[in-house]
Design goal:
The chain folds into two domains: 212 residues, Rossmann fold; 93 residues, Rossmann fold (3-Layer(aba) Sandwich). Helix content is 47%, strand content 15%. The protein has 13 helices and ten strands. A six-stranded mixed beta sheet has the order 1-2-10-7-8-9, with helices on both faces. A four-stranded parallel beta sheet has the order 5-4-3-6. Helix 3 packs across helix 7 and helix 11 crosses helix 12. The termini are far apart. The model has no long low-confidence stretch (mean pLDDT 96).
Length: 319
């Protein structure tokens, strides 16, 4: 896969900055002390939908509207954050949005999507089944599906990485969670566009290891997605196109347990007073797991959309 270049990433920024400002990146003293080096956290929990997904969704949806005459409806499958991004993008562009979620999806993420004006459809027992159903809806006249991995999504996600690389000191390593791969591909694209030597490291849940297994075996490998607290990482079958970008640009993929992710969520609250959902805290869990010897490092906090009941249990160390 060919990653976006600097001009394409900057063009995506022009689309985004009409509706949101750049998000901050901070180096937190307590977190630095805990890690034993200088770390810069990219706060994608500070976007209008509480996660990085708006970036890719708006860039992708804008392109679809420009290239598909007669488009009326955007369709997407999601566990929550992608659906919020697509819902907001559709609202801003004057389009309808149909979002498909699996049964038992996060109630609070469902509420947030409904608040964007989407039509919410429950189908399937996991993301993969929801995605297959959504693709059928996306084939109807006037409809278009926004896949959870697409080059236009990567153009959007690369915008936060460009912000980080241009604002922070030159980073030795950046830790990035992997759901379906658009985020880490965007980080690699921005790194490459700026000619940096920063090492890009992916982080997945050990309870949802499909991307880690695929990375090692250099082929797409499906695996159960059983994480209980990081629904944004619950991918059963990796996207083949995203794996091409990861094989070509990522140094390694670290697996962390749900217990490590829960601890990272608590640390974010204790050390920075920031809310992080499970997937959002995974990069910090990866950095704590590896304990890199050299800094500074980047840590991508991809989102803060966690249900109150789950977060309460995590803060109380019940998970």
């Amino acid at each position: 896969m060919t990653l976006p270049n600097l001009a394409e990433i900057q063009a995506a920024q022009q689309i985004l900055y009409r509706v949101m400002p750049p998000t901050p990146q901070y180096s937190w003293p307590l977190l630095n002390r805990r890690l034993g080096l200088e770390a810069w956290v990219k706060h994608e929990n500070h976007t209008p939908v509480g996660a990085f997904k708006l970036r890719g969704a708006l860039v992708y949806a804008t392109w679809l509207r420009e290239t598909q005459p007669g488009l009326t409806t955007l369709v997407a499958a999601t566990r929550g954050n992608h659906g919020q991004g697509v819902g907001m993008a559709a609202r801003l562009l004057g389009l309808r949005a149909i979002i498909v979620v699996p049964h038992g999806n996060s109630l609070e993420k469902n509420r947030a999507m409904l608040a964007q004006g989407v039509s919410l459809v429950e189908h399937g027992d996991d993301f993969q089944e929801s995605l297959e159903f959504a693709r059928g809806l996306g084939a109807e006249p006037g409809h278009a599906i926004l896949e959870s991995f697409h080059p236009r999504l990567v153009m959007g996600t690369a915008t936060y990485a460009l912000e980080l690389f241009q604002a922070a000191p030159e980073l030795a390593t950046v830790y990035v969670p992997i759901g379906l791969g658009s985020s880490i591909s965007g980080v690699a694209a921005a790194r490459n566009a700026l000619g940096l030597s920063t090492e890009v490291v992916g982080v997945v849940s050990s309870a949802s290891p499909s991307y880690a297994l695929s990375f090692v075996q250099h082929q797409v490998v499906s695996a159960p997605a059983l994480t209980q607290i990081a629904d944004g990482l619950a991918c059963r079958t990796p996207n083949a196109l995203s794996m091409e970008a990861i094989w070509d640009n990522v140094a390694r993929i670290v697996q962390v347990s749900d217990a490590e992710i829960a601890e990272a969520m608590r640390i974010y609250y204790q050390d920075t007073h920031n809310l992080a959902e499970g997937a959002g805290a995974a990069a910090l869990a990866g950095a704590l797991h590896e304990r890199p010897a050299h800094g500074p490092i980047g840590i991508i906090l991809t989102g803060g959309n966690v249900d109150r009941s789950l977060y309460s249990r995590i803060l109380n160390e019940e998970i």
